[in-house]
Specification:
heterodimer; A: about 325 residues; mainly alpha; ABC transporter involved in vitamin B12 uptake, BtuC; two-stranded antiparallel ribbon; 14 helices; B: about 260 residues; alpha/beta; Rossmann fold; 2 domains; six-stranded mixed β-sheet; four-stranded antiparallel β-sheet
Chain lengths: ~325, ~260
């Protein structure tokens, strides 16, 4: 009974948080709407990274490849006259398909070999898009057709689309944390031989996890392209996007549902504030902050938070 | 092909580059039989077990389980053929509780066991292996003996017909060894075929119907425990030829 109450309480809390996040787009000003849209985009990307890093144990530093592919996919489809929803659906499927094609060879690599391979993948795809030209626009990039909506309506639409991506990515991670498939992914991470001996097809499980990661990241890239209206290879396949998402994941806590949300919100809002207060020194300040996090909460803020709540609970019981 | 055997190896050979770890080993395990696989360190026991469970590919020979050739099968398909194993170096899922570790084994060894039923089976197995009190703990929070019992629990949750036990008694104290022997005997009574790789001779003698001895990857003996353990070749493999010569000399001295 207590377990049920706790579960319903958590569901209610999530529902209230989601409702407040949706409602926020109607009272935030343009400046903060842009920042929170960016936060939601990073929640989606970081949760996508959480699937492959936190759950599957594969350190992908090149998830920007999916973001860039998603951005270019959506840009090309929208320019070709596809409706927005169909372009986003197509680009999400494209991200999953890319992971399906590249997963079997790349996921044979372990540890830093895989990490380096994903960075190379990102660079290779960027070069490909740059040199193909034609539909991809080559070095000139792609300008998307202007929306006929008012700016604030457009920003709200983008905000809600990003919220959809962040919510879907969080639901995927939540599902992973308690489903049969999630157990297969986590077991494959902890002991590959052990998992195989228990009947788990570890290769298929990892490819499927990377497909989820790729799909979510590609969706975020698609919405981003629609948002900024003009894309080029340098910004769409920017490795720093992967690195930033990685820092957010570290800050929040890998393998948890809430961690990436906290990490993305904390880092993005803080980066904006640091930028506005310290100008040219903002990168230095961010560096100091990252060092502090790695030194004091190396497994993310979620771990001390869990400890705090567990302690409060036990004190409550004693009282 | 002989379905009366749970395991048949024919000319099993495993090479790692130029090193022959297992060389042309043939052996069988009858249904419900407990066979001990012994030999000095580096004899190839674990490699042979790894090749039976398909974690290491065979360079030559065939493996049959209940008459079915599994030589080319993927390792993750073996639990569906009734094969379960434990690992010499324990391989727990470190970030999952003992209960979840065992439930995973139950969940994936059969195609469609729902999570709830897998958890129920895990509870039953943990009770049998006396780990119920520690079910919600992580593997790192329990002793080595408990982690060994966790290995066995996971294998039992797969309801195996052929169980491969790789040094489950290493590092256990006498009481724990006795408990493990008791468990193996119970499983044997239930009709499970078992291959036991072990250095604890007390356990080997107590549970095995037959013993196979490996030395430098080759089979050097196969027979009843008393016969095999008094075989001069086996004694020489374990203790050296000089020990056998000394024993023979002592015996000759007594008789003359």
């Amino acid at each position: 009974m207590t377990h049920k109450i706790k579960r319903y309480g958590a569901a209610l809390l999530w529902a209230v948080a989601a409702a407040l996040t949706i409602a926020a787009c109607f009272w935030l000003d343009n400046y903060w709407l842009r920042i929170w849209t960016s936060v939601l985009m990073y929640v989606a990307i970081t949760q996508g990274l959480n699937v492959i890093v936190g759950f599957a144990g594969y350190h992908s530093f090149g998830n920007a490849a999916f973001f860039g592919t998603g951005a270019y996919g959506a840009a090309m489809l929208i320019t070709a006259g596809w409706p927005l929803w169909a372009a986003l659906l197509g680009t999400t499927a494209g991200g999953a398909l890319l992971a399906l094609l590249l997963g079997p060879p790349l996921l044979r690599l372990k540890g830093h070999y895989f990490a380096i391979a994903t960075v190379a993948l990102n660079a290779a795809l960027a070069e490909l898009i740059l040199n193909v030209g034609g539909w991809t626009g080559g070095a000139q990039g792609i300008s998307l057709p202007m929306s006929d909506m008012s700016p604030i309506a457009l920003y709200r639409q983008v905000y809600l689309l990003m919220f959809g991506g962040a919510a879907a990515a969080t639901l995927i991670v939540f599902w992973l944390s308690r489903s049969r498939f999630g157990y297969a992914v986590r077991a494959s991470k902890d002991s590959e031989d052990g998992a195989k001996a228990m009947g788990i097809n570890t290769t298929a499980v990892r490819v499927a996890a990377w497909m989820l990661s790729g799909a979510v990241t590609a969706y975020a890239g698609g919405v981003w392209a629609y948002w900024i209206n003009f894309i080029e290879v340098g910004s769409a396949f920017d490795v720093s996007l992967s690195v930033k998402a990685y820092i957010m994941l570290l800050m929040g806590g890998m393998g948890s549902v809430v961690g990436p949300i906290l990490g993305a919100a904390f880092f993005e809002v803080l980066a904006t504030l640091v930028w506005s207060k310290f100008g040219a020194l903002h990168n230095l300040m961010l560096g100091v902050l990252v060092c502090a996090v790695v030194l004091f909460v190396p497994r993310g803020v979620i771990i001390p938070m869990r400890r705090y709540f567990a302690r409060r609970k036990s004190v409550g019981r004693a009282v | 092909m002989n379905p009366s055997h749970s395991l048949e190896l024919e000319g099993a050979t495993v090479r790692f580059g130029g090193v022959v770890a297992v060389s042309n080993v043939s052996m069988s395990v009858g249904v419900g039989e407990v066979v001990g696989l012994i030999g000095p360190n580096g004899a190839g026991k674990t490699t042979l077990l790894n090749s039976i469970s398909r974690l290491v590919p065979l360079s030559g020979g065939t493996v049959r389980v209940f008459g079915e050739n599994i030589t080319r099968m993927a390792p993750y398909t073996l639990p569906r053929h009734g094969v379960a194993r434990t690992f010499q170096v324990v391989q727990p899922f470190a970030n999952l509780t003992l209960r979840e570790n065992v439930a995973i084994a139950a969940m994936f060894s059969s195609r469609s066991l729902p999570k709830r039923e897998a958890m129920e089976r895990a509870d039953a197995v943990l009770a049998r292996t006396r780990l119920t009190q520690k079910a919600q703990m992580l593997p790192a929070e329990v002793t080595l003996a408990d982690r060994k019992r966790l290995e066995v629990s996971r294998a039992l949750a797969m309801t195996p017909k052929l169980l491969l036990l790789d040094e489950v008694m290493a590092g256990l104290n006498y009481t724990e060894i006795d408990a493990m022997i008791h468990l193996i005997r119970e499983l044997q009574r239930e009709g499970t075929s078992i291959v036991v790789v072990e250095h604890v001779m007390k356990a080997i003698i107590a549970v095995c119907d037959r013993i196979v001895v490996l030395q430098s990857g080759k089979k050097i003996a196969d027979g009843s425990p008393t016969g095999v353990l008094s075989d001069p070749t086996v004694v020489a493999a374990y203790l050296g030829q000089r020990y056998v010569d000394r024993q023979n000399a002592a015996a000759a001295g007594v008789t003359s």
